[in-house]
Specification:
By secondary structure, this protein is an alpha/beta fold. The protein has nine helices and 17 strands. Strands 3, 6, 7, 8, 9, 16 and 17 form a seven-stranded mixed beta sheet that branches. Strands 12-11-10-13-14-15 form a six-stranded parallel beta sheet, sandwiched between helices. A two-stranded antiparallel ribbon has the order 1-2. The radius of gyration is 21 Å and the shape is globular.
Length: 361
Amino acid sequence: MPTESWPVRSLGVRAPGVPDFFDSVEAALGPEEFWVRTLFSGLSSGAEASFVDGTHPYLTHGWHREHGVFVPGEAAVGYPISRLGFMEVAEVVESRSHAVRLGEVLAMSYGHRTGQRSRRDYFSMPVPPDLDPVLGIYLAKLGPLCANALLHAAPAPAARLGDGVRDRGVLVTGAGMVGLLTALFAAHHGAAVVVADRDPTRLAAARGLGLPTVDEAELPAWEYCKSAWRHNTVERGADLVFQCRGTGESLATALRSVRPQGTVIDLATYRDGLTDVDLSQEFHHNGLVLRGVRSGRLPVGTGAVWDRSRLAEETVRLLRAHGPAVREHAITHVVPFAHGVEALSAVADRRVPTVQVVLEF
């Protein structure tokens, strides 16, 4: 007999600095809908943390979709925020859709909730049975975002994911989960990669994944790049930098580390603005390219070849090759959903050294 209603608990933010649980009830499923029970949900130390501490631009600016600009004084969202998150793995427990089967485990993107109503036309992807199911948190959004960054590195529309990185010297600034997955993608597709950070926990995770590292507490990343990569008598530095740490200082480092006329691909969420960046310096004098990457926005000219599903499939391939190492070295904490408030607080204020924190339901 169909379930008449679904009680849901979600993790969000009640006020700045106050993560909290929210309870609601959703009605019975409609035609072609199905219900999933959440198994795992990954916490983000970037965008989610900025909603906790009140620094996300959506809290002070509206997004003008038609013009593609932020509008100050017209907040897109406000407190309380009853749902955060975008890295979920869930099991189908009831269905009125012929497209999914009961018991199927899906990678989805709907937030830290105990369950979710969905339709097959919303993005989801079966988690392959040969993958540890917790790794499915990367298939729906974060993995495709990092794979998309490689597409943005190509000088022309890319037919293959490695076209923009193969045989190139690549620096990745920041060894959070975005940085680690991006670095793994680049190394997997033939780049010479080094990851820079100063956090011992994150540097250890990078080394555990087989990625060379620069400890910025001992050596500035730009000095390493200018010494390691020499292209001729006057040009030194990385061919390409993936900027994955949300500080102005890190973006300035990325611009300083790349060779003249090189490219910086920016994936970061900036919680504290960009006061440390002066575009009249390296960016201008070395003729650099700075390109931002966001989920769901593919490079111009690639839409006929690439989409979210193909990027997710590339993530599956990456995790088949490196999944055990990611599980061992990058997923540093798995905590019960009942402790989600404490976990989100710890991630937001950085009081506990972490790479990836996962909520288990």
